[in-house]
Amino acid sequence: MKIEVTINGEKRQVETAGHRRLLDVLRDEFALFGTKEGCGEGECGACTVLLEGEVVNSCLIAVGQVNGKSLTTIEGMADGQTLHVIQQALIDFGGAQCGICTPGVALCAKWALEKEPNASKERLRELMSGNICRCTGYQAIVDAVVSAQEGADS
Amino acid sequence: MSDFLQPRSLAQALEERAAHLEYQLLAGGTDLLVASKDRLPLLGMIDLMSVSELSGIEEVAGGGLRIGATTSYSKILDSEAIATRFALLHKACREIGAAQIQARGTLGGNIATSSPVGDSLPALMALDAQLELASTRGKRTVPYREFLRGYRKVDMAEDELIVAILLPAQPEGAFHYWRKVGTRRAQSISKLMIAAVGSVQDGKIASAKISLGAVADRTIRLYEVEKAIVGQKPGPETAAIAKEVVRASITPIDDLRSNAEYRLSTAENLVARFVLGLASTVGTTQSPSSAKKNK
């Protein structure tokens, strides 16, 4: 089927089977390699993208379902060469190590802070509990997100 | 290349279902797409997310709610009506997967998959939910407690779709108790879930609906326990009786996530906590007659 989708503000098209995973189409058809595959089962959040502003696992979405919709991937988070405040904070606080979970973590944090700008630290942990990191132990990630939250407030 | 159908109305979806019984029905995909790249391509899929009339939450007469089958958990969590009047379902949905799963997973999908560890299912059973099913042959409504027929077996013809979930009004001031026991709060598959709703009037348990997940081949209601505690005073004595009846009425299994004895004693303890929780609501709910007396 023909799929038309807006990715990071740009209209894109592809002819492919509707049941393919969005994750595979992003990487193999659109060469957007920022979206990573971790578990492929919806447990780790590495493949997180935003679909119509909602946080989703791209490994669990049939690409036919995003026809006519808009997506944000990690490639759309920075403004040109200027990193998003969350991306910068993840660097500053050591919230990124091996980098596999980082695109998903950054996008989920963006979604969480937009959904609940005044969320407590505990609530942020709950909202981001679908993103697993095996390097940082999470504290550095939480510190980074809280710092981005405070930065956005001021 | 396999077929990917996107009906735009319920009528169209029912026709496509009747014409393609071998196709896979797709809702949020959170179960269906797990490791899908390792499977052979499907003959075809019917995408129910494209049918807008299958999604949404509306009030029905008598204080109930009608939830469209493809309503996502996150829409349920955003509903004030569900948070305040059907807290049990709200609590259960909050512990399903994590945000990414909640954004896509649907109530109808959980019901159709009908896994014994489906997290919303005990809440639906304890709330006495009814299901609205439809096919090109017509519509029917079935109580959820009668819908489950065995391990992943449900009372649904192959041409039928789940259209909506109906929740009847719950007793005023009812106590909604939910606990999910697992290895980790987010994402983990449950070892056991309890969903229970009860009310107390004039110091006695007036109603109790208790459901357990992950202790049998399907979600179950504890009718024997309910019968044993209704009419009794909520407190430690009734909790002890409830524990005995739990032990006599369920036979959990050993599997990779837990074992039978752990599940049995956890079930007993959680049912006891529900009964003790009912005791703590005494004084907060009153029958119309006792309310008058206190004026």
What attributes does this structure have?
heterodimer; A: 154 residues; alpha+beta; DNA polymerase, domain 1; five-stranded mixed β-sheet; 5 strands; globular; B: 295 residues; five-stranded antiparallel β-sheet; four-stranded antiparallel β-sheet; 12 helices; disordered C terminus
Description:
- The complex is a heterodimer of chains A (154) and B (295).
- In chain A, strand 3 and strand 4 form a beta hairpin.
- Chain A has 154 residues and is of the alpha+beta class.
- The longest helix of chain A is centred in the last third of the chain and has 15 residues.
- Chain A is globular.
- In chain A, strands 2-1-5-3-4 form a five-stranded mixed beta sheet, covered by helices on one side.
- In chain A, helix 2 crosses helix 5.
- Chain A is built from five helices and five strands.
- Chain B is α+β, with helices and mostly antiparallel strands and 295 residues long.
- Chain B is 34% helix and 24% strand.
- Chain B has twelve helices and 14 strands.
- In chain B, strands 4-5-10-6-7 form a five-stranded antiparallel beta sheet. A four-stranded antiparallel beta sheet of chain B has the order 11-12-13-14.
- In chain B, helix 9 packs antiparallel against helix 10 and helix 10 packs antiparallel against helix 11.
- The longest helix of chain B is centred in the C-terminal third of the chain and has 21 residues.
- In chain B, 47% of the residues are buried.
- The C terminus of chain B is likely disordered.
- The chains are: A alpha+beta (154), B alpha+beta (295).
- At the A-B interface, strand 4 and helix 3 of A face helix 5 of B.
